[in-house]
Amino acid sequence: MLTTKIKSAEHLEEHELNKILKHLSKNEEWLYYLIVRLGVSTALRFSDLSQIKWSDVLNKEVLLLNEKKTGKRREIPLGKELSENLKLTYKKLGSPSVDELLIPITIRAVNKQIKIHAFRAGVRGKRISTHTWRKTFGREVWKRNNYSEASLIKLSLLFNHSSTAITRIYLDITREEVEEMYAIQDLFVY
Fold first, then answer.
1. How far is CA 69 from CA 48, 99, 120, 184, in A?
2. Which single residue of 24, 93, 123, 141 could bond 33 by disulfide (Cβ 3.0 to 4.6 Å)?
3. Which residues are CB-neighbours of 151 under 8 A, at least 6 positions away?
4. What share of the chain is helix, strand, coil (3-state, %, to 5)?
5. Which residues of the chain have pLDDT under 50?
6. Which stretch of DSSP H or E encloses residue 76?
7. How many Cβ atoms are within 10 Å of 95's Cβ, its own excluded?
8. What is the DSSP track for 16-47?
């Protein structure tokens, strides 16, 4: 029996993400800029991002929503920088009605366009989709917390995974990366 491995979205390194954001900003692709920026900042699935209205985020400190997949109520702090970024993007999009959705297009359209923009930004050889932002968030949290097991436990809860083993697989954390953590020289030298 022939089995085909499904090629899932990959995470981006910080410099790759910044290349895409810079390209989108420079080319005034504000809707896609918003999708990437909000996606990586909230770690939400596209099904959740696509139900957010401007009234849910403008002048708010916290985004409240019920996750579509899990049905769980989420409270996501927006932070000052992200809130300011949302206000600016809102204006650049022509200040739509606050009752309108932030992302009024389909996941299929987003995935197609985001691949084009990533290529034009010089990010090539990666499997990119709307799920890339969620994985990028997870990898960056893990990295900024010194690749700690504690950060994997918290990410596992955030992603609603049943174990940190699932989170490791989800974030494509390889055995080699874990082994490299033990390659620290002169850790316990008298």
1. 8, 23, 32, 41
2. 24
3. 141, 142, 145
4. 55, 5, 40
5. 1-5
6. strand 73-77
7. 11
8. HHHHHHHHHHHTT-HHHHHHHHHHHHH---HH
